[in-house]
Amino acid sequence: MAQRPQIVVLGAGTFVRTQYIPRLSEISNIVIVRAIWSRSEESARGAVEIAREHFPSIECKWGEAGLEEIIKDGSIHGVAVVLAGQTQV
Prior knowledge:
Layout: E1 6-10, H1 14-26, E2 32-38, H2 41-51, E3 59-62, H3 63-72, E4 78-81, H4 85-88
């Protein structure tokens, strides 16, 4: 069986917590959410805490250093850049 693709979510606000994580959990058998990144550590940790139920090995990344780690990680197959819900409308 092929390895499941690994993705990262950039953004950790309300829309990620209430919409993205629940939808991604529905496909947790075909994709691995490797990390959630936010500008702030507090926001990233809050979203990761919610996602950990479905993705136990998820990592918490924040700030410039965390983003740089994501960019340099060749094992990541995709990135979801999540904007605030009102921005997407």
